[in-house]
Amino acid sequence: MAKVKDVVHHIRSKNAGPFWVTFDLFFDGESSFEKYATSPKLGPDTFARLYGADPAHVKHYPVRTLHMVKISYARTSPQGGEVERDMHCGQQYVRLLDVELD
Description:
alpha+beta; Threonyl-tRNA Synthetase, Chain A, domain 2; elongated
């Protein structure tokens, strides 16, 4: 069973302003992009389970020419809050690495 870390050559997460988090998944080629970019396993339910995101506020933007997908969700609390542990969200992608796509 393929995992995210098996089919992307680069993945990053970052804040997209004080109210959103975004992920960029660069697939290792056209075939991986075609097979997995729109996988339900990269959908709102996964982001709700892993990050507590409201599924209604998960946005999915495939970029075919770059073989990548951008996935964004609204933060559950604004950036820089009292209990913030990763203010720039640079480490949030780690939870996605072992998501099984098949």
